[in-house]
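Not sure how to ask, but would you mind making up any protein sequence you like and the tokens describing how it folds?
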Amino acid sequence: MSISELQDLLQQRNHWKKAGYTVVFTNGCFDLLHPGHIDYLQKARHLGDVLIVGLNDDDSIRRLKGEQRPVNILADRQQMLLALKSVDAVISFSEDTPLNLIRALQPDILVKGGDYQVDNIVGADDVRKNGGKVITIPFLEGYSSSQLIHRIRQLH
């Protein structure tokens, strides 16, 4: 599937639901795509039949991570994520959290990285109220966009 508008994605979500597919949702900035991201997204996808990625837009990343970010603009980040076999749909959001997306999409499984406590994950209560699961996936050691940016700066 391509980069989605919410209405289109909701229609597709209804189709997946009728077909009995398990829909997994995760979100993030995915600024400098690295092996840790790929491992995480593959593991998230294996939890269900469809993986939707909520992607912070450029303005929300600047608010969350500072004026020097993102390194890659939204369109580039979307294209990279959609090139991965594990990702079925990408939808951007402008808020600081994906709560509105989670409430609209009602995923069967909500996934975040292992640095989160399940009870503190945005949207966890909503997913559980709808009978879904909230799962954390440990990060692949040694990978982070921030560390990668720091390393690049040291080399130049």
